[in-house]
Amino acid sequence: MNDRFNGKVALVTGAASGIGREVAVRLAREGARVACVDLNSDRLAETVEAASTERAIALTCDVSDADAVDATVAAAVAQLGAINILVNSAGVADPNQRRLHEIPLDAWDKVQNVNVRGLFLMKRAVIPHMLDNGGGAIVNLASVASFRATPRAGSYVTSKGAVLTMTRAAAIDYAKDNIRVNAVCPGTINTDILANASEDVMQMLVARAPQGRLGEPEEVASLIAFLVSDEARHINGGSYLIDGGRCAGG
Ligand code: NAD
Questions:
Q1: Is the pLDDT of residue 164 over 70?
Q2: Which residue blocks in the chain are alpha helix, DSSP H?
Q3: Range of the domain at 100
Q4: Can you say how many angstroms the Cα of residue 178 is from the centroid of all Cα atoms in its chain?
């Protein structure tokens, strides 16, 4: 087993499912102590089991709730020590496809609150610990949608644009503090975020994929693990596509 994260403490949001789960398992198996954070406590327990190590703990939290985020980060630090790595994978998409003017305010707010406010709240709570401890590494889950709009997904597209610009803002603010902040921008990845997609939509997603298949969450976890590792120490403020070639053209 690779032990490149021995002695490190990581906090991963969205760790009950998909990309967040694979990242949490990977970091724990490679030596990190990992706080797995999500709304869904049942599925968080499965993540901790999948990590099959004593080093992973589960903390139930709504990332859009400021008090809950502060309490969760405090609990993670109390149980595991100061956080060196933060991966923000919690995210939602509006299951209804609508043009901008048709989106109800509560549906708009839900997507922005989880995808943008949640990211800010996590950074606000974790970065002081990184500053006290000489640095850290953060990866935010942006998307291909940060660069190119998909039709009838305006709230999600807007939120993922904000993830990218918040990544750059943070990278510049903390570069001299040895805190690196990068964004990973997946294409369509085979996770529960697609749970509400119809058979027709799934066929369309595969048909438009240059490699003829969707990405797998393990493949995204590999990129993220590299970006938060010391091997990536000069990589800061970047946005890294992992889309099987979709943005290359065709
Ligand atoms: P997923 O649905 O499998 O997992 C998302 C997790 O976030 C779930 O466990 C969910 O419970 C959690 N979550 C949702 N709201 C939360 C909240 N308020 N507080 C705490 N946890 C909450 O999705 P995924 O595909 O693994 O997506 C992970 C990230 O990657 C998201 O930010 C998503 O936008 C992004 N992304 C995914 C894809 C894709 O095709 N799967 C593509 C581009 C970007």
A1: yes
A2: 18-29, 41-51, 66-80, 105-112, 118-132, 154-174, 199-207, 217-228
A3: 9-242
A4: 21
Residue 249 has pLDDT above 60, yes or no: yes
Q: Residue 143: CB within 6 Å of ligand 1?
A: yes
Question: Using a 6 Å cutoff on CB, does residue 59 contact ligand 1?
Answer: no
Share of the chain above pLDDT 70, in %: 100
Total number of domains constituting the chain? 1
Within a domain: 247: no
Q: Is 92 in the pocket of ligand 1 (CB under 6 A)?
A: yes
CATH code for position 84? 3.40.50.720
How sure is the predictor about 195, in pLDDT bands with cuts at 50, 70 and 90? confident
Tell me if residue 156 is catalytic: yes
**Given ligand 1 and candidates 17, 116, 202, which is best to mutate, with the most ligand atoms within 8 Å of its CB?**
17
Residue 248 lies in a domain: no
27 is a domain residue: yes
Element (H, E) at 214: none
3-state secondary structure of 149: coil
